[in-house]
Amino acid sequence: MAAQIAPAERLLNLVIALVNTAGRMTKEQVRTSVAGYQEAPSDDAFERMFERDKDTLRDLGIPILTVTDAGHGDDIGYRVDLDAYALPPLDLTAGELGVLAMAAQVWQDQAVLADTSRALTKLRAVGDAPESTDLVAGLAPRVRAGGGAFGPLVDAVQARQAVRFTYRAATTGEVRERTVEPWKLLARRGGWVLVGRDRDRGASRSFRLSRMEGSVRTVGEPGSFTAPSADELADALQTWASGPERVATLAILPERASAPRARAVPAPPDEPDWSDDPLLAHRDLVHVPFRAEWELAEELVGYGDAVVVLAPAGLRQSVLHLLRTAATLDREVGTDG
Amino acid sequence: MAERASDRLLRMLGMITYLDRHEGVPVEAIAEQFGVSTRQVMDDIDTLWVTGTPGYYPHDLIDFDAASYEQGVVRLTESRGMTRPLRLGAREAVALVAALRAVEAALGDAMDPERAAVLRSALAKLTVATGDAAAAVDVQLSIDAAPDVAAAVATALRHGRRLHLRYVNASDVTTERDVDPVRLVTDDERSYLLAWCLLVDGERLFRVDRVLSAEVLDADAEDHEVRAGAEVFSPGAEGELVTLHLSSRARWVAETTPVDAVRNLDDGSFEVDVRVVQHAWLRHLVLQVADDVLEIRPARIAQEVAAAARAALRAYGEMI
Hints:
- The complex is a heterodimer.
- By secondary structure, chain A is α+β, with helices and mostly antiparallel strands.
- Chain A is built from 12 helices and 12 strands.
- In chain A, the strands form 3 sheets. In chain A, strands 8-7-6-5-9 form a 5-stranded antiparallel β-sheet. A 3-stranded antiparallel β-sheet of chain A has the order 1-3-2. A 3-stranded antiparallel β-sheet of chain A has the order 11-10-12, covered by helices on one side.
- In chain A, strand 6 and strand 7 form a beta hairpin.
- Chain A is elongated, with a radius of gyration of 29 Å.
- By secondary structure, chain B is an alpha+beta fold.
- Chain B has 10 helices and 14 strands.
- Chain B is elongated and about 90 Å long.
- The N and C termini of chain B lie far apart (64 Å).
- Chain A: One of its GO terms (cellular component) is proteasome complex.
């Protein structure tokens, strides 16, 4: 036998041994019979090597079962559960593999990227031919990094295990410990959000991952909270859903605000008659569809006097509010010269 | 960098599965399938050849047809029961399915039917293979392009054609230019077209929601050297340094704007330093967060923004 056996080779030998074992293999059997473990210089070194290898394999998705033999007291054995090991029947064409390869690169998060490249290696084994990138040429979708909290939260959502973290509230700036039953992670405009049940409040809440400070710890055992009902989840997600499409009526100076103009739609049928509005003597009437009022208000305010909102009233008020506040900026702030 | 043992293990397991499904595969084809060098494939095969079940006698080992291997073709003759493909781990499945769903939702409509069909079939197969795991994560990408613009960009990218764009910048100035498209970069905020602009003879990022119209030209796009990282907006050191002191509610600014530095203050408020190249952009940002601005340095910026706001209020018929 070779003097030095590489870790990958030792791991492979361990998997093959645990897949093929008649019933189970004890730690001692692994040590004496699986190639690569004889090199461990001491009991301790073997223990560490074997524990680490088991963790590595489980991390890769290889299901190692712990089997105790009633006849042998606390003598623990191991085997790989081959039914849980295998991917359901799957064949992928070169094009499908290409699409998956693109999806594997979407994540900007190094830890998640490592997960998706592993997934891709596994899927390449069932691909008919090397991935074809023709179909996805030129597309580069990206999902921003969720930070260190992302991985532990995904695991906690799937394990239905409560989590505790330090959170800086946006409204007050208050920093406090939160204990949350995690339901779902959302990537939305402006970053990652955890939706779940805040145990202290006894109600569903949303938390931005970027405002979690320090690490996310699990609380209690896996499976220790009841999954939300469909209604509860839908309620909690309501905040993050986009509303029905509405149409804003704008008066825009000639040649200005080309971007909203490009999205213009015909006037809605119930449109009031604006022709008497003195503004329109020098401005064009433009109708722009929108879903989130705040989002359109924040866009339009950037055009300054080039765009005046005529309707709906709520949008007009939002824009006016921003303008009135901004109009006093040079009085209240910036006095440091 | 040395490859991690776990990554190599996965690939070697994958090779057994793959070689069990494909009778006799040239080393080059295996290298291409798994995205590694032929040297690496041969190393892997050599390792596979000496692994097996305890005992490690010839009949215990994974085996290949030696005569065929000498001709550079790998033929698996003994797999030791390792032919079943390994399932995806929970997090692997979540990440991949979520990404694919987001791509489908954002880009599916802009793709031609052939591409959209492949995307959908990949998603369907993967969903069947991974079960409901992906419900944990929901990603939304923003494309924000007019449908005809999205379609023109997709066609030009697919077929390597030049595009004629009408584009409006942050200062509300419209220009017309021909570009050779490189990539469509889509994230949860918005989409950008990275392209070589023939007007300035350099790479440029175009916000797709500001492309007023796009026409596919009857000319092939040329290949251009594009700087690594060109698809990320970076403020650049040449801009003016502006400091915004904001109350806690405006924390999204630090999260969504390319900032030089963020300082958290004890009262929950915070300061961000931003490099400003386009003043129109900064004016817009300050107007959006007006409610939460505690201080702006230099003060001149606050005066400019306030003046712009007063001009707008006059248009609404309000005097301040």
